[in-house]
Amino acid sequence: MKRVKLGLLPILEIEWLRKSVDSAKSGREILPDGRVKYWIQHEILKEVAPKMLVWWFQNLEGDIEYKGKHYNRYHVWHPEDHVHVSYEKRKEDGSIGPGAVLRIVEYLGRQKKYLVNVISPIEKLDEDGFIHNPKLYGLLPLARMEYRFQQTDDGTYYENCLIVGWKGFSFRFLRPIFEFLFFDKKHGYAWIKHNIEEVGQFQNFLPDLYRKENENLR
C-alpha cells in the first residue's frame, strides 16, 4: 500500500449542499449471518443520472473547476472529511472497473478516532450500482460497500450500505467485542451522516462537471 499523508485537511471553504441525516431513511440491522449492516436510502438526486455516477467513480483523481476556482475533486465531494483518494491499481487497459483497487483516506465527522485508511478492490461498477470491499491495513477484508442506482424521471434513486464483519460463526461470537474495540454504533452512525452529506453534494457539482468533461458524450 502506497504511503499517503493521513492528517486532516483544512476545511474547504466552498458552497456545498450539506443534507441532514433526516433527509434520508437509514438504519442498522444484524444480518442472518451475523454481520452488521448500516443502510441508507437517499433522497432522489435531482439532475444526476446513473451514467454520471459511474463516470465519477472512474475519475476520482485530480482537480476540478468549481464556482470559478480549482480544487481537488475528492475534497469538493466532502469539504470537511475527505483527505485522499487514488487508484492503487487499474485494470490492464488502464481503465477503472471490476479488478481495479481504490485507496481511500478520510475522517468521518473530522474525528481522528474515525479514520478511514483502506484499500478497496472494486467488484462491480455499472449503471445499476457499485460494490467495493475495503480491507483494513490493506490486508483484512472486514467490510463491504454496496451501492444501487436507479434512474427516475427527476434524477437517480440512490441507496447504499456498509456491511461490517465476516461471514461465519466466529464473527457472530466475536461481534460484541469487535464492535466495542473497532466499530461501535456511534462509528456506524458517523458513517451514515458522512455518506448522506457526500451523496447530497453530488447535486451541487456533478451534473455540471460531467457536461464540462464529456461534451462529446451529450
From TrEMBL:
Record's protein name: DAPG hydrolase PhiG domain-containing protein
Coiled coil: none
Domain DAPG hydrolase PhiG: 16-95
Keyword hit for Zinc: yes
Family statement drawn from the similarity comment of this UniProt entry: Belongs to the DAPG/phloretin hydrolase family.
InterPro entries reported in the protein's UniProt record: DAPG_hydrolase (IPR041526)
Keyword Metal-binding among record annotations: yes
Molecular function in Gene Ontology: hydrolase activity; metal ion binding
Swiss-Prot/TrEMBL keywords: Hydrolase, Metal-binding, Zinc
Cofactor dependence: Zn(2+)
